[in-house]
Prior knowledge:
Elements: E1 6-11, H1 17-25, E2 30-36, H2 40-49, E3 52-54, H3 57-63, E4 71-74, H4 81-92, E5 96-99, H5 107-120, E6 122-127, E7 130-132, E8 139-145, E9 151-157, H6 166-170, E10 186-190, E11 193-197
Parallel strand pairs: 1-2, 1-4, 2-3, 4-5, 5-6
Antiparallel strand pairs: 6-7, 8-9, 10-11
Helix pairs in contact: 4-5
Amino acid sequence: MLDSKFSVALVGGGTIAPFHAQHLQSSLVLELIVIIDPFSLGERLAQKLGTSYFKSVSVLLQGLPDRQPDAHIVCVSSSLHTSVTQELLECAAPKEVLVEKPFSTDSKSGSNVVELARQTTHSHREHAAVDKDDLMEEGATIMLQFANGVVGTFIVSDNVASPRGWESATGDNPMFAKAGVPADSYRILRTKGTLSEPDNIL
Length: 202
């Protein structure tokens, strides 16, 4: 049994924030202690959950000088992920920063934050069903030519409807229809077996 829980701040109070809050409040080792959001949506969520609320990271640093969060979950709009994460790393010096996907909307800003994180703390994307370090953008196309001359085209996208998309496969976001049957979004291949997630089939 832990003497104290690992304290967590939610940065952003929008669509996905209540789902993070639900996981945090049901955890035996984590504790949601504050929501940071400049908008009224975040303030209302904090009131509903009975937790502290601050409009910005700088105000939080002044308002809770004796108890800063151990970790911050960044769940603001995608375009703000890197700028908010950078502010946290530079000002709050958290032990952990968890960033909602996509980690960044362009490679350059994402790489800059990763480099800053290497100098200060850990930066990664995490989900209750699987922990996975990643640097992701919304989509990409890849064309490969194999040794036998066959050409393959691969399309990777994080913003289209598919039963194998993470939100549909897990059903954790009501904005996306849940897949009617168990579906895998990721496969982790090892020499002694392969694990698919989030259906957890070995």
